[in-house]
Amino acid sequence: MDDVIAAIMTPPGEGGIGGIRISGRDAWVVAAQVLRSLSGKEARASRVRHLYTGQAVDPINGVLLDQVTYVRMEAPHSFTGENTVEVFGHGGPLNMKRLMAAFMVAGARPAEAGEFSKRAFLNGRLDLTQAEAIVDLISAKSERGLQQAIHQLQGGLTEAVGTIESALLLYTAALEAQIDFPEDEVTSEDLAGLRKELVGWRRDLKELERSADAGRLIREGILVAIIGPPNVGKSSLLNALMRYERAIVTEIPGTTRDPLEEYVNLQGFVFRLTDTAGIHETDNPVERIGIQRSMEYLRQADAVLLILDAGDDGATRQLSPGLGEAIAAKEHVIIVLNKADLPARIAEEEIAVLFPGRPVVKTSILRGEGLGPLQDTLINEVFNGRVPASEGYLAVNERHKAALGDAVRSLEQAEQAIAGGLEPDLIVTDLRAALNALGRISGKSADESIVEAIFSHFCVGK
Fold it and tell me: Which one of 40, 270, 358, 408 is CB 3.0 to 4.6 Å from 221, fit for a cystine?
């Protein structure tokens, strides 16, 4: 990592200020060929982390490019942990492109996507969970997602896992020492104490593993399919939750043909609401394609809102063949009895028989009634009644979940080895496997392919 890299670190487009980051051992050597004082003399930055005002010039012919401010940082006290210079000029694509070209002539090369953050990881400035949090922070779509990313950036998950990892390492080292020195025999009391600790560690890691689904939903958004027969108010519900007329609403059944997906922020959580074509029996080939797509969304959704007409005669009659079975296969389903302002013609007993255990919400979208309880029920249903706290730590992706699962299984095998009276060296093998799995979360034991995959999702300049 001796080469000097540079990239524009501000968003593309016109703006008051545009920034370029230069990082590497000779960052200042490169930057000094472009930067000058306001009087045109050689730029000086004798004090680190102080902002200087000056000029940027063409390093070949000295032609003025822009008036800039710049700051120099010395390793390891920078984002990357390397010598770094950050230069701020007037924003604008052409100006930034010209400044970047000057630093390339001076000896820098363009940074690859995520290369600054990768260098920060390799230099010990952040771990893999914090690196992932940077991407999540930039792309957050909700307040909850933003809070989760910030907590992760502060090391929340690493701290939770690290507490167990440190204690496990001490026990493993002690057990290995007793194996290496036969005079220090491993006693049954030692193993009983370890087994007790294993039960607690496994329980805590299992809880973190379970949190991965909630973390993913907060980070990516909760896909909700609005399903039901034609003309029961599916599009009207989408519009009501969006608070503007996003979907076309008419009294003509089958108005919606293609699924319509929109993001909406409800109580700090981001939902991907999908209005779908009404599901019913039809010979119309176009409608049948729309219904097939509706069923696909139903199968993919994290949660389903099944909309029925409370004023129509019977819920059974409103369900087309196959819809009831598809609904029964989903974990998170809410039955929405719309048009509750009309005389009720659906018996609660029928709903209880058709959809046992499913929450039921009555709404009148026409009058704006029942939307608050529907939102509360949806959030409660998606998170199984355990809505994540704003400041809580969560595993937020499949990588975390897989590593935690491997650690849990290794600890369980260690418990079984102790219970079965196996030799201590076999117990240590399972403990080491658990440590390796936990190390993959922070990056201590992650292989190069995982590291490369994570940083490939970063933008250039970060």
Answer: 270
Q: Please indicate, yes or no, whether residues 30 and 85 belong to a single structural domain of this protein.
A: yes
Do 9 and 74 fall within a single domain?
Answer: yes
Tell how strand 51-57 and strand 64-73 pair up. Answer: antiparallel
Q: Encoding tokens for residue 16? A: 């008051």
Give the confidence band of 144 by pLDDT, cuts at 50, 70, 90. confident
Q: Which segments of 52-142 does DSSP mark as H helices, in order? A: 93-105, 115-122, 128-139
Quote the strand ranges of 231-320, DSSP E. Answer: 260-266, 269-275, 303-309
Nearest Cα neighbor of 118 from 438, 400, 447, 452 is 452
325 and 408 part of one domain: no
Please give the angle made by the CA atoms of 344, 347 and 348, to the nearest 5 degrees.
110
pTM listed for this prediction: 0.73
- 189 lies in the same domain as 287: no
Same domain, 250 and 309: yes
Residue 412 burial by Cβ neighbours in a 10 Å radius (0-12, 13-18, 19+)? middle
Tokens for 105?
A: 């002539």
pLDDT band at 112 (very low <50, low <70, confident <90, very high): very high
> Is residue 305 in some structural domain?
yes
Q: pLDDT tens, 385-444?
A: 766 655 555 666 888 999 999 999 999 999 999 888 888 889 899 999 999 999 999 888
Residue 264's identity, in one-letter code, is V
Domain count along the chain = 3
Residue 117 lies in a domain: no
What is the residue range of 75's domain?
5-111
> In terms of domains, do 195 and 335 share one?
no
